[in-house]
Write a structure and sequence with these properties.
The protein is an alpha/beta fold. It has a 6-stranded mixed beta sheet, covered by helices on one side. A 6-stranded mixed beta sheet has the order 10-11-12-13-14-15. α1 packs parallel to α2 and α4 crosses α6. The structure holds fe (ii) ion (FE2). Fe (ii) ion binds next to loops. The site of fe (ii) ion has 5 residues, from loops.
């Protein structure tokens, strides 16, 4: 049994969201749903998420899982909006605890924010199973871009998050706190050991060279053609290429709002006494290596 996969593209952030459905039971998982966000006004919107909900309804699918491949730094998650309308459990890799602890410090969050993963319905470990009717999804821990990064394998469809992009896009950056290029290399080796015909669905596409945005490739195409990491690329070559490239990259546009919301499983910070939720902007902290934690 192979899943039906329906992609949704969020142009402003280059993010792919997927609906994965078991054709027999009509159960579905949504992977990496996006919340619209306007940085200038601080206003959120659900038009993009509502298109996913409309698809679930028109295809008569029942939402079982809302899966994050990691706590994203480039877009806000709409997981709670989907859950409030269609149900399902929100899950992420168990490495989220480290990510939460790091960013609790970065954003100076108070005691109300407990970095133990409790904000999510389920924390996933390597090789965990996600039941989806006749399909048994498998969690593949793929740290490197972040410490909470996981990939999801449903039948022949692999959702790789930010590990590799389309072959002409290379690989994901490894310079966030908790990122590690050598670890990403080893994670990608695990993915490259899957059958060559495995369908690969990427989390982002920035359409290099002006081509149309794309989301689907295969393990074979990645092994043979990924511009950063082919099957025979030695680890030291990849690590030095990745680190050199990371040194040239700017901090993502939406890292400040995205991370604060996404470490709360997509929820806004608790409202202040005036009933409004506020985000924090740490001055002169992001964009250079973090100092070691003070105990
Ligand atoms: Fe990411």
């Amino acid at each position: 049994m192979q899943p039906d996969v329906t992609p949704f593209f969020h142009q402003p952030t280059g993010t792919w969201t997927y609906v994965v459905a078991d054709p027999a039971s009509r159960l579905a998982a949504v992977i990496d749903p996006v919340l619209d966000y306007d940085w200038r006004s601080g206003r959120t919107g659900t038009a993009t998420a509502d298109a996913v909900l409309a698809h679930l309804e028109s295809a008569a699918l029942r939402l079982r899982w809302i899966l994050e491949t990691h706590a994203h730094a480039d877009h806000l998650s709409s997981a709670p909006h989907l859950q409030s309308r269609a149900g399902g459990d929100i899950a992420i890799g168990e490495g989220i605890r480290q990510v939460q602890a790091t960013f609790k410090r970065v954003f100076g969050l108070g005691a109300e924010f407990v970095p133990d993963g409790r904000q999510f319905d389920r924390l996933l470990a390597d090789d965990d199973t996600l039941e989806l009717g006749a399909l048994a999804g498998r969690v593949v821990a793929t740290p490197g871009h972040t410490s909470d990064s996981v990939s999801y394998l449903f039948g022949d469809a692999l959702f790789v998050g930010d590990t590799v992009f389309m072959p002409d896009g290379g690989s994901a950056r490894c310079d966030f706190p908790g990122g590690d290029a050598a670890e990403l290399y080893r994670s990608v080796q695990r993915l490259y050991a899957l059958p060559p015909e495995t369908r690969v669905f990427v989390c982002h596409d920035y359409a290099p060279g002006g081509r149309a945005p794309a989301c689907q490739t295969t393990i074979r195409s990645q092994r043979e053609g990924n511009i950063h990491l082919k099957a025979d690329t030695p680890e030291p070559d990849f690590v030095s290429l990745r680190q050199a490239r990371d040194a040239t990259l700017d901090v993502p546009n939406l890292i400040i709002p995205s991370v604060q919301v996404n470490i709360r499983a997509g929820r806004k910070p608790p409202p202040e006494p005036d009933g409004v939720s506020y985000l924090r902007v740490p001055l002169d902290v992001l964009g250079r290596p973090l100092p070691p934690p003070k105990h």
